[in-house]
Structures are given as structure tokens and as C-alpha cells.
From TrEMBL:
Species the sequence originates in: Leptospira levettii
Gene Ontology CC terms: plasma membrane
Entry-linked CDD domains: DPM1_like_bac
Domain of life: Bacteria
Any Pfam family the entry gives: Glycos_transf_2
Protein name: Glycosyltransferase family 2 protein
Domain Glycosyltransferase 2-like, residue spans: 15-176
Molecular function in Gene Ontology: glycosyltransferase activity
The keyword Transferase is assigned to this record: yes
Entry's localization field: Cell membrane
Recorded topology in the membrane: Multi-pass membrane protein
Length: 332
């Protein structure tokens, strides 16, 4: 797609949103890296650190950091709501003309923000990091991640960029549009692709975690994939329809074959060389029963999401905030 771009200056305020869940061991490294890096950015900075119901000493580390650095603002959620909701909370409270989303583990180097700002000045509203290498990850993690992004491109949105996480810069007008989408089951990468606006990648090598363990093991990645697919696409429902058609055709051909063998035996008086019936019945029961259960399960996922949306609950509950004036606090 061709974009009409208007050049702009650096944002007057750049908000950096960082969700934190049990990152006690990571925060000293993050603090040191950002303190050194942020002095090089020629604009005012606010760091919005979202404590997503951590059970270790993350919140104490964050509070101590905020006492030392007035740029640090804390949003502490009442429990663990998940990564995507924690990022949403940070975006809700961000006051910057542009917002950068990054994780606390420093796998996404903050130095990439320089290039993101350059693309922002060219007029792009979304500048997302696209990984060309992944350091410190097993071959299994790399293969599953590779498959995840390509599956999501098929299921979620054709414009969903490959090998790109939530590490990105978003302009204020894009952020306002994004914050207007209040669905409970969130897949922010897909939502970014859906709202449009001029978007461009910057390429970088992803580093290994500086400390701690990954917060996105295979189980969570599969859950995110299911959530994204069901929230953004009717394709799973169409899959269940296609499965039903395939099973119907299999049943038709098995029935035709059974009639043909009966014709051979009773009309042509040909002998039957095996005990007929049981294998066909078992196969058909398994095929039909399995396809029905799969279809009901997929339909149930959609109904569950309708049920969740109909309750109209808030996306998250804030326990307390620190460093954010009352006038700038998020209002529903």
C-alpha cells in the first residue's frame, strides 16, 4: 500500500511502556541500560512500568526506581491480567506524542528506538521491530516462533508482519485509535495491523534474556495463537464446516463401498474374504464423532468470547499508580 507521508519533528514527549511480571532479577539490568541510553534521546521521556500482579519483589524494585528517577511512573494492577492487558494499561496512561512498547528482559535492544524515531520523523505512525536473528534461544523455540507468525498471518490478518512482536513505536493518533478498541481478548499485533495507518519495519537482532526465565513458553504461545485466531478471524468456523463436508464425503464413499461389496456377495454370489461391518462402523463413528466434537469446541470458543464481551467488565483493575497526576489518569 502506498502512503502519503508528512515529515514531523521528534515527539515532545516519548512514552516507553514496559510490562513487568516477576522481573525482579531483570530490573537492575533494565535500569542501568535505560539510564545510560535515555540521555541520548533528544526529547522528554516518561517510563511507564506496569506491574502485572507480580508475586516476587518486582513492585518494590519499581517503587525504589521511581524514587530515584522522576521519569518513572508506575501502574500496579490488582492481579495478573496477562501481557497484552498490561501493555494496554500502559498505553491508556501514556501521555506522550509517541509511545514505544518494549519488554523488560532487554531481548529487544532499546537502541533500536533511535531508528524508530527516524522513521517516525519521516511520517510513519507505526514502526515495528522485525527480527532477523534470535540469540540464546533453542532450535525448538525458533521453529515454533517461525510457525506461529506464519500461521497468524493466515488466520489473523494478511498485513500482519512476520517475525514481529510487540516491540514498536506508535504515534499518538494511532494510539488513540488503538485505545478505542476495548475488546477483552486482545492481540495487539493484529489490532495494529487492523487499524491501518502508515507502517514500516526496522530490522534488528534479538538478544538473549539478561536474566530470569521467558514469560512466553510454548503453552502461552499456543494460547495466544488460539486467542488471536478466534478473536480476529472466522476461519476456524469455516474449518469446522470444511471438516464436516470431508467427513460427509468419507461417509458417502464408505457407504458406496459397502453397497458395492453387498452387490458382489448377494447378486454376483462372490465370497466375502473378511468379516464385514465392524471396521466400517468403528471408522465412521470415530470420524463423525470427532468432527462433531471439534466443531462444537470451535463454536464454543466463539460463544465464550461473546459471553465475555457481553459482561462489559473493565479490561483491568488498578491497585495503585505512582508518578501520574490525577489530571492525566485514564478515564473509562
Amino acid at each position: 500500500m502506498k502512503y502519503f507521508l508528512e515529515k514531523r519533528s521528534n515527539p515532545k514527549i516519548l512514552s516507553i511502556v514496559i510490562p513487568c511480571y516477576n522481573e525482579e532479577s531483570v530490573l537492575p539490568y533494565l535500569k542501568e541500560r535505560l539510564t545510560t541510553f535515555l540521555v541520548k534521546i533528544p526529547t522528554k521521556i516518561e517510563l511507564i512500568l506496569v506491574n502485572d500482579g507480580s508475586v516476587d519483589n518486582t513492585i518494590f524494585e519499581l517503587v525504589n526506581w521511581s524514587k530515584e528517577d522522576k521519569r518513572v511512573k508506575i501502574i500496579s494492577l490488582s492481579r495478573n491480567f496477562g501481557h497484552q492487558i498490561a501493555v494496554t494499561a500502559g498505553m491508556d496512561y501514556a501521555s506522550g506524542d509517541a509511545v514505544v512498547i518494549m519488554d523488560a528482559d532487554l531481548q529487544d535492544p532499546p537502541e533500536v528506538i533511535f531508528e524508530m524515531l527516524e522513521r517516525y520523523r519521516e511520517g510513519y505512525d507505526v514502526v515495528y521491530g522485525q527480527r532477523i536473528a534470535r540469540t540464546g534461544e533453542s532450535w525448538f523455540k525458533k521453529i515454533t516462533a517461525w510457525a506461529f507468525y506464519r500461521l497468524m498471518k493466515v488466520l489473523v490478518h494478511k498485513d500482519l508482519p512476520l517475525d514481529s512482536g510487540d516491540f514498536r513505536l506508535i504515534s499518538r493518533r494511532c494510539l488513540d485509535a488503538l485505545n478505542g478498541l476495548r475488546e477483552n481478548h486482545r492481540f495487539l499485533r493484529g489490532m495494529n495491523a487492523w487499524i491501518g495507518f502508515p507502517q514500516i519495519p526496522v530490522f534488528y537482532k534479538r538478544d538473549a534474556r539478561v536474566a530470569g526465565e521467558t514469560k512466553y513458553p510454548l503453552q502461552k504461545m499456543l494460547k495466544l495463537a488460539m486467542n488471536a485466531a478466534v478473536s480476529f478471524s472466522p476461519l476456524p468456523l469455516r474449518f469446522s464446516l470444511a471438516l464436516g463436508i470431508i467427513v460427509a464425503f468419507v461417509g458417502f464413499f464408505v457407504g458406496a463401498y459397502a453397497l458395492f461389496r453387498a452387490f458382489q456377495h448377494f447378486i454376483l454370489e462372490m465370497p466375502i474374504v473378511y468379516n464385514p461391518g465392524w471396521a466400517t462402523i468403528v471408522t465412521l463413528i470415530c470420524l463423525i464423532g470427532g468432527s462433531i466434537l471439534i466443531s462444537i469446541g470451535i463454536l464454543g470458543e466463539y460463544i465464550a468470547r461473546i459471553f465475555e464481551e457481553s459482561k462489559n467488565r473493565p479490561l483491568y483493575v488498578v491497585e495503585f499508580v505512582k508518578g501520574i497526576p490525577d489530571s492525566k489518569r485514564f478515564q473509562k
